[in-house]
Amino acid sequence: MNTDFSKPALEDKLNRITSIPQRFNQGLKNLWQRLTLPQRLYLLAALLLMSEHLGLVAIITTIALALEFWPLFERVWHSLAGKAVLLLFYAIVANYALAMAGAIVNEVVGVPATHFNYTHNFAILLLLPAWILGISAIGLLFVQLLMPFYLMIALMLKPVGIKLFSLTGNSHYRFTTLMVRFVLSLVLLYHLILLIGDVEERVESALNDLKTIEESVKGESNKGQDKQLTANTDEVAANLEMKAQPSAEVSEKDEALSNAETAQEKTDDQQTRQAESEASLAKEYASLRHAYQGEIRELIAEFAYRLEADSRSRCEKSENANVVELNDYEILEVVPDNTAKYRYRFTVRKCISPAFPAK
Question: How far apart are CA 167 and CA 156, in angstroms?
Fold first, then answer.
């Protein structure tokens, strides 16, 4: 009788064990179906955090943030106050892009950008997309920093019966998505800092300056204590000789010191490897930034030569040069030159014409 009753129970246990992979796969399918597209991208980026492709993590995070908060952007845009705020925001961005475009044109051609109106507009078209993308990414990151405060306010108002509008369209795993999004936003912010410029170096230099100030203050305060320490040195040495330890204790202490030194060496090696990887990543972003800036300047120089400058002029010029008349007495001569910085040479010359002949 016992064997008859034990057989069904054993079969049930075996069926449960064999169905574990199937139930696990079904649970993963249900989880994947509940997730929205931005949540799936967050999951993919979180899995890639364990790898070395952090740049890909930043790109996927940016796409997920844009997809998730685009409905919020549309909601703000369709309101009058939100439209005014967004227009003011992008007007500020356009103003900065306008000023930077003028500075770059002046750097390339060597004269004020007012003499190159079309080239200035072309530079704005080249710089404006990068400015809009960068500022929009920073704005999305700023929203992520405000999300915990929004959550605290929502929890405080919930017992009163006041329900705030939802910033995202996620119906499942909201808190988990918030935490994962916050971590990925920090990774994206780190890559943006490396891509923008030498912000990290400036912070490190400021910290080093603070350390030097603290060390100088400590050095001045320790000058008075040095005399007392030197006076008590002989007494301390005598006490150490009187209290000599046995050889066994000394060997144990030596072993402990050696173990501590090896552990310290391991941590130092890990820190040096991490510093080397960060330095190589910073160099990659710096090379990418310099290549982008150089390409923009070469395009501006080529546009100024081929489309802005005139191939014919009342003033004398070189055979293969184009000129821009600065005033009645001066011209800017643009000559193709592969040895020049931006493959074109810009030179201000005196206008020699029938009205102003050479003396």
Answer: 17
